Amino acid sequence: MPREYAAPSPDLLAWVGGEVGPGGRVVAVERLVGGITADMDRLTVSLPGRDVEVVLRRWADEDGTTDLVVREAAALTALAASPGHGVPVPELVATGPRRTLTTALAGEPDLAPADPASWLAQLAAAQAAVHTVTPLPANPRAAADRYEDRPRALDWIADRGLREAARQAADGPPPRDDLAFVHGDFQHFNVLWLDGRLTGVVDWPHAGVASRGTDVGHCRLNLAVLLGPQAAAGHLTAYERAAGAPVDRRADLRSLLCFDVEWQEFIPRQVAGRAALDVAGMPDRVAHTVRDALDALDASG
């Protein structure tokens, strides 16, 4: 959940400088907005003869933080070992207690694209490319199945018939024959853009092995929340075109059902004024997307 931002301490800045290189000294700190579970800063580090920009992520002292650090480090290592994917991603610089330090990439999230079709096509192509990465043998752990994390009342779906049909269709574990390396939180808040071109996919602490449909469905859920069911449908079409294969429709549906009314509280903080946002309409937009997903699941047999 959202937490109050705290600037990095002098000791932490000294650690960053030392990890970047001998004689490194942090000369500028820029807070990155939109984070809800960790503090993020873009730091400029002065080295002899040059400056280097890095990103520091800091989690609060909470359960599970160590796993997030390990998971992100393992993901960035796997991505570096599979350069053929072609997706611009940060490089791991260092890890520490409840923190990761990575290289900085150009660009920033674009939540109101001037060319939505190109934006969706690039987003989908990047996600499909991520799914071609070979996980590290030492860390093939499954990404979290958010649908199983807690009971789902689905009360935000006003249509009781749709609610029950969706619950029944989603029942059971995700498929085991659609597994791939996944980002785990692939969506527009974690993708960087510059002049209409995708320049980076960031924030990898939830990466692991899971169904492609689970990862795609999570992205579609976020698109439905911010932009609506048409964007969610467009992403699925563009992804399957880029991947050359369909996703498991039930895994996709399970991710869509992970919406909760709590999203109406934290999504505005993530958007942070960077796009128009209809908070009240979120449940209806996701319910529309769920209905479309159910229709697709029925059509697939």
Automatic annotation (TrEMBL):
Where is each Aminoglycoside phosphotransferase domain found?
A: 50-243
**Presence of the UniProt keyword Transferase in the record:** yes
**Keyword annotations:** Transferase
InterPro entries according to UniProt: Aminoglycoside_PTrfase, Kinase-like_dom_sf
Task: Tell me a Gene Ontology molecular-function term this record carries.
Answer: transferase activity
**From which residue to which does the signal peptide run?**
none
- What name does UniProt use for this protein? Phosphotransferase
Q: Which species is listed as the source?
A: Nocardioides luti
Q: What is the lineage of its organism?
A: Bacteria, Bacillati, Actinomycetota, Actinomycetes, Propionibacteriales
